[in-house]
Amino acid sequence: MQTTYTITELSREFDVTPRAIRFYEDQGLLSPAREGRRRVYSRRDRVRLKLILRGKRLGFQLSETRALFELYDSDHGETGQMQYFLEKIHERRELLEQQRRDIEAVLGELDVAERSVREALRVKGLAPTPA
Amino acid sequence: MQTTYTITELSREFDVTPRAIRFYEDQGLLSPAREGRRRVYSRRDRVRLKLILRGKRLGFQLSETRALFELYDSDHGETGQMQYFLEKIHERRELLEQQRRDIEAVLGELDVAERSVREALRVKGLAPTPA
DNA sequence: CGGGTAGTTTACGTTTACGTAAAGAGAAAG
DNA sequence: CTTTCTCTTTACGTAAACGTAAACTACCCG
Question: Which of A9, B49, B71, B89 could, after both became Cys, cross-link A5 (CB 3.0–4.6 A)?
């Protein structure tokens, strides 16, 4: 199992530019080791990159993702920190559930639209219905 | 049932600034009627605004939402148009389903994180577990 | 008639998330 | 040694989605 990665390996695997990856580092989301000047990414870095990209797909700003990372890394012994973390989790959960409802709604509408278009095509006698 | 709306009514109902609503018009997403210089929004405009905002929550760019509107409005008799529409629907569906998977994953992780934090708090004897 | 309250246009400013170009370092290949 | 990659830093540029300020209009209130 591979244990370190170069920037181009990661950029190819996740289909992002090296520029983007360096930018995430600039913003404090990644902190790869160095071999001389070259960046060397660990498996932890790779996981983080995956999380960053998933966050992006869900509309998280980089600063939000960074904040979540910091919470994860922060002192888990501090009761105050944990309460704060629970609040953040709660907020995120509500946003995501709203988003899920939005998705269900749009998928439903796409169904309706698709059916109506297919019906229209069928009526035209072109009948490519089972596609 | 109300049949027309002012810009401030809509901005309050959907919690967006009038500036944003005018911007959507600039970008060709809304085309309210006018009474003199004043904008008068119909129920159709209101529905569109709702769709715009839902699109935003899902990470659609305004230009993408506009493109979908144009498809909806376009000549439904044109077979080519309909095929194109079906393709767009398919693309959108795949993106949305990816997004749904992302959401499920994050919600699952939030569950794990929340449980572990609650457990940590319980162990500390502070036991606010049933919150 | 002097204010408020909404609304309008015009235009420049701002943030986020990179793109892109320039210039150089280091290692391998011919 | 020169070429060729890959990677690096530095820095300016850019698109999207508004924010914000200025200056104006129109109407209602007392």
Answer: A9
Residue of A nearest to B109 (CA): A89
Would you call A40 helix, strand, or coil by DSSP?
A: strand
Cβ-nearest to A76 among B114, B118, B120: B120
- 3-class DSSP assignment, residue A35: strand
CA dist., res. B52 & res. B68, Å (int)? 10
Q: Give me the pLDDT at residue A66, please.
A: 94
**Residue B60: burial class (beta carbons within 10 Å; 0-12, 13-18, 19+):** buried
- B14 — contact with chain A (CB < 8 Å)? no
Three state DSSP letters for A43-94? HHHHHHHHHHHHHHHCCCCHHHHHHHHHHHHCCCCCHHHHHHHHHHHHHHHH
pLDDT digits 0-9 by tens, B30-67:
999 999 999 999 999 999 999 999 999 988 899 999 98
- What are the CA-CA distances from residue B70 to residues A119, A125, B7, B48, B74 (Å)? 20, 26, 23, 12, 6
A7 CA, D1 C1': Å apart: 30
Strand D closer than 7 A to residue B83 Cβ: no
- pTM of the predicted protein model: 0.85
What are the b/e assignments for A42-52, b being 16+ CB within 10 Å? Answer: eeebbebbebb
